[in-house]
Specification:
Keywords: Acyltransferase, Transferase
Number of helices: 6
Protein name: tRNA (Adenosine(37)-N6)-threonylcarbamoyltransferase complex dimerization subunit type 1 TsaB
Number of strands: 10
Domain Gcp-like: 34-127
Pfam families: TsaD
Helix content: 25-40%
EC number: 2.3.1.234
Strand order of the largest sheet: 3-2-1-4-5
Oligomer: single chain
């Protein structure tokens, strides 16, 4: 099965094509763009398709990261992939950003791994995968201190941009840090997307925090009578 995966949850705009039958990433690109995912994603997708020598009509499944991560980036990725799914009549699955970081690492180390991302404002987003890749602690927002206590209690390895924050709370955790990535590898997103059930993994954003922008209340400009 040929799976197309897209990740816009962080400062990268990542696309990959994965051939499940061969366990092979056919083509991928992960340029660091900061912002502007909506403007750059179509061209990056076309580059990956061209590199692979395939067309969208040959893609059999779609996957997209659903967060946590950038509010705007997640909305762009999810909306884009939903449109492709409708236009090409193929199934689409949502892949959690933290799952795509923790599960491959836990399986590779055959040990529990906490994926932990810096959520700013003295918060982190974290999730724990066991040695077999099963989720043992679901995605949640923590203070660094809370997450550090949990990491020390469970003896996990730490992976992600928030790992250093936990090590700053508990120096004994510094030796447990195995990486500081701010987003999952797009190849790992594609591999997970290739076997997830679309019925139980819908492409719906998972923010773990309310949006900053909110409707104004208690203030309204009078309507001008024309």
């Amino acid at each position: 099965m040929l799976t197309l995966a897209i990740d816009c949850s962080a400062r990268f705009c990542s696309v990959a094509l994965y051939q499940g039958g061969e366990n092979r990433v056919v083509a991928e690109a992960s340029p660091e763009i900061g912002r502007g995912h909506a403007e750059q994603l179509p061209a990056i997708l076309q580059t990956v398709l061209d590199d692979a020598g395939v067309t969208l009509s040959q893609v059999e499944r779609l996957g997209v990261t659903i967060g946590p991560g950038s509010f705007a980036g997640i909305r762009v990725g999810v909306a884009f992939v939903r449109g492709l799914a409708l236009a090409n009549a193929v199934p689409v699955v949502g892949v959690g950003s933290l799952e795509a970081i923790a599960i491959p690492a836990a399986r590779a180390k055959t040990a529990p791994v906490m994926a932990v991302l810096d959520a700013r404002r003295d918060r982190v987003w974290a999730l724990i995968a066991g040695a077999d890749g099963q989720i043992t602690s679901s995605a949640a927002e923590w203070t660094p201190d809370e997450a550090a206590v949990e990491a020390a209690r469970t003896g996990v390895w730490l992976l992600g941009s928030g790992a250093a924050l936990l090590a700053a709370e508990d120096a004994s955790l510094a030796s447990r840090v195995i990486g500081d990535s701010s987003a999952p590898a797009i190849a790992d997103v594609a591999r997970l997307a290739s076997h997830l059930d679309p019925r139980s993994n819908p492409p719906e954003p998972r923010y773990l925090r309310d949006a900053d922008a909110k409707p104004q209340t208690g203030f309204a400009l009078p309507h001008e009578v024309v």
